[in-house]
Amino acid sequence: MRSDDDNDAVAIDWGADPLILGVISGDGEEDNADQNSAKEDDSSDSAFMDENGDADGDEMGLVGGNANDIKYADFFDPPHSHARKGRQACPVSKSKSPTPDEDIEASIRRAIYDVQRDLFDDDPPDNDEEMGALSQPNRAPQSSHEKRQASITDEIRRLEAANVSKREWMLSGEAKAPDRPINSLIEEDIEFERVGKPVPVISSQVSNDIETLIKRRILSKEFDEVPRRQPYILGSEVHHKREQFTLDETKPQQSLAELYEEDHLRIADSAFVDRKSEKLKGDYEEIARLWSGISSQLDTLASWHHKPKPPQANINVVTDVATIAMEDARPTGGAGIDTSGMLAPQEMYAPGDEGKIWGEIALKNGMAVSIEEMPREVKLRRRRREKQKLKKNSSQPVLTGKQAEKQKIVSDLNKGGVKVIGNKGDLKDVYGNKVSSNEYKAPVILKL
Length: 448
Hints:
Layout: H1 4-11, H2 18-21, H3 28-52, H4 57-63, H5 80-89, H6 100-119, H7 128-135, H8 144-164, H9 204-220, H10 237-243, H11 256-268, H12 275-302, H13 323-328, H14 345-348, E1 360-362, E2 368-370, H15 376-395, H16 402-415, E3 420-421, E4 427-428
Antiparallel strand pairs: 1-2, 3-4
């Protein structure tokens, strides 16, 4: 028979949390129900032993003590069918429905746990079952879908926590030396992105292959070199390849029917010559004609009977003119020759208002002198002369209109030497002054 300790072990779950399961009630009805269930189990085990018979005597002797206390269950597991009956016979303790006070207490515990988890996130609880128990004190049996959803939720929480938490320096992008531990780069196998072609690794096998190739070339006297290419030299192979095709960018002058006609005539008529061949044939004929002319000239020069043409006299007519007349004569096309070389320095350089040079004046001899370089007496004399000229011009009346035009005409006539015959037949100038008869006339010299 089983002891009372066995009955207590079956009835009480020592691994459960007392906070979740609540205070164990000591009602006499529940204790009586547990005792009745234990007695039913014992009676079922004894009945099963009576049906199967007693154990062997040798085995009983090995056990020692009273053989009547030995049961079948001490050596063998109960059959499944009887075990199911036994489990069915054992009444399942139904959980009490939570009261309002228990719901409030469970919500308070859950809030306290959430606050502790937020404050001490770096030190999570070790027991996951305890967390689940605190979050759900009265968990009902879950279906397979609910379990699968719960596992997916836990995985999402784990991934979110890993994404938010601080990553290692290998996974944090560009990590500088202060951001990683000392000598941590040596332990990692890092891949570098190279833009250029990777450099081949020179090993002993590669060196041996190169040495073998050199020795074989020396023994067979194969000293081959890379041929130099000169693509820009006329007559080279590359030049011929480039000149093989010439793209004609002009608009085609023939229609499609004419092109088909030329193709048919080229096949049918052996004497047919197209336009390109005709042009090329004309070039050949011109080359042949030029060569025949050169050949005939060479034959003439090499012949014994060569008679050169008589030389022709080259007549050069020289005019017999005096030297003075030739020097004074204006050269042909003199209008296009620059006359600045025949002018005096004062004629070329004229300071003043016309030359737009301030501070310089031109003397009577044509020399340009700066006012600052002139002596004080010369400056005073020049200033006095300018004042007198200005005073004289201001005293004379200014003529305008017809009077000014008439005065201009009279002055032009006086310059031309026009004479007027008076009433008594004597000569007078345009101003009415008498003209003396012994007036000297300067000779007029004209140079041609």
